[in-house]
Amino acid sequence: MSSLFLVTPLRIMLLSLVAILGFTILRYSWVAFSGEKDRRRFIQSLLLTIATVVLVITANHLAIFWAAWVCVSLSLHRLILFYPDRPRAQLAAHKKFLLARLSETMLAAAFISLYVQFDTPYINQIVSQASDSTMHLSVNFAAVLLALVALIKCAQLPMHGWLIQVVEAPTPVSALLHAGIVNLGGILLLFFSPILAASSVACWLLVVLAGISTIVAGLVSTTRISIKVKLAWSTSSQMGLMLVEIALGLYEMALLHLFAHSFYKAYSFLNSGNTVNHYLAAKLAGSEKPKLQHWFYALLVSSIMMAIAQWQFAILPSLAAIALVLFALTGLLVPSFTHADNGRVPKIFLTMGFGVALLTLYTTAKHHLAAFALPDPTLNLWADGFVAFLFVTLFVLSLALQYWPHAPLIKRLFIWLNAGGYLDEWATRLTLKLWPSESLIELRQHQWHTNPEVK
């Protein structure tokens, strides 16, 4: 007989992540709110949110999982509205609240379908039976609903506006959200991965919507000036990338991505003040911008390194993964080609050595994570090719925005990206209609005329 809670190696890893991030954010909050009269209320809400996340990760019963999922959202709502008089915080909280209720309704419908099909409320039994049985129509329906819930939870376009505007909340809230809670969509899909893998409709839904969100959000982040807003758009892009990896069945890569992104975003938000100082220092130092030929050289060297690594060790299982790591290596190498001085060659070899070390670290981590994640399903070559094409598109467009900003098409693209693609307008209008507030309406009118950054 199954228990209400389950502890597996994968869940232990996730609990360790929650413990590290939770302790760090709690310690930061205790110091940052030392002068706040409501510090006790904030700490209580923070602890409640972390506790409900732990409950989600350990739950083995559909009802407990769903109840904990709802409690995470409700406790987070209290944190976002810690300063309830701020109109932008109200707008973000209201958008998040409405989208959360929609996703929770879909999650309940998915769980009911799974319960009816497998006649058990225990998640481990459902996953086990799903791995050994032919998928029924109701299970495909549940898989599509789970994919939609993950897209909403991970703030994928066009349901991303709340994540961008939630930077109005205190910094520890942003760190908790971007480093932890937003990952729950990916965790949900990892827990129910056999059901997702058996539904081609659900996988293609993730590949297309999350893939496009990755590209658009990644390009929009390059147009942002505010450090926190840039990080928020980056989170939407990175979450889309994680969902794409799960949809392709690259579970170890997705899990590694989840951990790396969590630590990076927690550090970035909690250290955002110093990030501004470093940015200003780099501007004052007059850092040299790489030329197109430097990008070509870096891409050529990266291609040779990747070809050797694939030939000798076959470290990457898909074309999309190869393209992703190739462009990441290119971005790592290009600064060493930029400065034409006597130290250029040593810098290039030093950076190449660092790149080899990162590839080795990635391969080692991926090998060890294979023991914690589920076996990868058969790769869909069409989906893999489509995602690789999206990565190439992102790389080319990002260079075009840097080097041909005055070309008519690129200028129009920049204007569209600078306005966030106008993709959040529907959510703002719907929120103001369903949850009207005088302060929000005044904020909206002010935004429309003066501040396209938060559109």
From TrEMBL:
Q: Provide this UniProt record's keywords sorted from A to Z.
A: Cell membrane, Membrane, Oxidoreductase, Transmembrane, Transmembrane helix, Transport
| Membrane topology designation | Multi-pass membrane protein
A GO BP term here is: ATP synthesis coupled electron transport
Q: Which InterPro entries match?
A: ND/Mrp_TM (IPR001750), NU5C-like (IPR003945), Transporter_DabB (IPR046396)
Cellular compartments per GO CC: endomembrane system; plasma membrane
Does the keyword section mention Oxidoreductase?
yes
Single Gene Ontology MF annotation:
NADH dehydrogenase activity
Q: Where in the cell is it found?
A: Cell membrane; Endomembrane system; Membrane
Domain NADH:quinone oxidoreductase/Mrp antiporter transmembrane residues, every copy: 59-277
Question: Would the keyword Cytoplasm be found if you checked this record's keyword annotation?
Answer: no
Transmembrane spans: 12-30, 42-59, 96-115, 135-152, 173-192, 198-220, 241-260, 294-313, 319-336, 348-365, 385-404
Family matches, as PANTHER family: INORGANIC CARBON TRANSPORTER SUBUNIT DABB-RELATED, NADH-UBIQUINONE OXIDOREDUCTASE CHAIN 5
- Subunit composition and interactions: Forms a complex with DabA.
Question: HAMAP family, alphabetically?
Answer: DabB
Which protein family is it in?
Belongs to the inorganic carbon transporter (TC 9.A.2) DabB family.
- Entries under NCBIfam families matching the protein: PRK08168.1
Function field: Part of an energy-coupled inorganic carbon pump.
Name recorded for this polypeptide:
Probable inorganic carbon transporter subunit DabB
Organism source for this protein? Answer: Vibrio palustris
